[in-house]
Amino acid sequence: MAAQDIAAALQRVESVLRRRPEAGLQDDEPAAARWEGGMRFVALHANGTRLLSDMPVELGGSGDQVMAGWMFRAGLASCVATCIVLAAAAQEIELAMLEVKTGSRMDLRSVLGMAEADGEPVRAGTRDLQLLVRISAHGVSPERLRALVDEGLRRSPSIHALKDAVPVVVRIEGDAG
Predict the structure, then answer these.
(1) 168 in a structural domain
(2) Which of 15, 121, 156, 173 has the fewest CB atoms within 10 Å, i.e. is most exposed?
(3) Which has the closest alpha carbon to 53: 41, 63, 44?
(4) Interatomic CA distance for residues 68 and 50, integer angstroms
(5) Looking at residue 1, what is its pLDDT?
(6) Per-residue confidence band for 127, with pLDDT thresholds at 50, 70 and 90
(7) Do the domain assignments include residue 20?
(8) CATH number, position 42
(9) Does the residue 18 lie in any domain?
(10) What's the first-to-final CA gap in the chain, in angstroms?
(11) Three-state SS for 108?
(12) How many domains, the chain?
């Protein structure tokens, strides 16, 4: 779909949301992960999409699927790229190329429940996250492309979920069976 087609679709949605702002707040499509045995999981979408994950052999998995953390980074990269495309379309910029890569570092000891030398649990989670955005558009200056990337980052719900520390609510349903 060309930038002008995307821009037209965005204008239609924006027109509706200007009249009915409450229509903009929507529940996201739930994602579910089901344990398949061993260290293998399947993430399920309501449309039937299935994404398999597993751990490396060193952590008891088969190593033949991606890890869940990779899916997180892939989702983040896709979200950022999507928001950059939306921003480009709104500005009538026809992109020639766009690629977003994510990288991160974590301490594996946290996944294993290990402690630091002082007995404190190793902090779980990603220690840092890097994004590399490769972008080009014919006749568009590097400064304008940078501003476009910044706009895409500003629009990204995934980036804001990370930066704004979105509250996490956990409900547990169990069966002793």
Answers:
(1) no
(2) 173
(3) 41
(4) 13
(5) 67
(6) confident
(7) no
(8) 3.30.300.20
(9) no
(10) 51
(11) helix
(12) 1
Tokens linked to 129? 């996250």
Predicted pLDDT of residue 51: 94
Q: Tokens for 160?
A: 């804001």
Rounded to an integer, what distance in angstroms lies between the CA atom of residue 33 and that of residue 56? 18
How many percent of the chain have pLDDT more than 70?
98
- Please report the pLDDT score of residue 87 as a whole number: 95
CB contact burial 30-56 (16+ within 10 A = b; e otherwise): eeeeeeeeebbbeeeeeeeeebebbbe
Structure tokens at 80: 């950022």
Cβ contacts of 26 within 8 Å, gap of 6 or more: none
116 and 122 in contact (C-beta within 8 Å)?
yes
- With a CB cutoff of 8 Å and minimum separation 6, the contacts of 121 are 110, 113, 114, 115
What mean pLDDT is predicted for residues 30-59?
Answer: 93
Residue-averaged pLDDT of the chain: 92
Strand order in the sheet with 40-44: 32-37, 40-44, 50-53
What's the whole-number mean pLDDT along residues 76-95? 95
Q: Is the pLDDT of residue 100 over 70?
A: yes
Per-residue confidence (pLDDT) for residue 82, from 0 to 100: 96
Find out whether 91 and 148 touch, Cβ atoms under 8 Å: yes
Residue 45, in any domain of the structure:
yes
Single pTM value for the model:
0.86
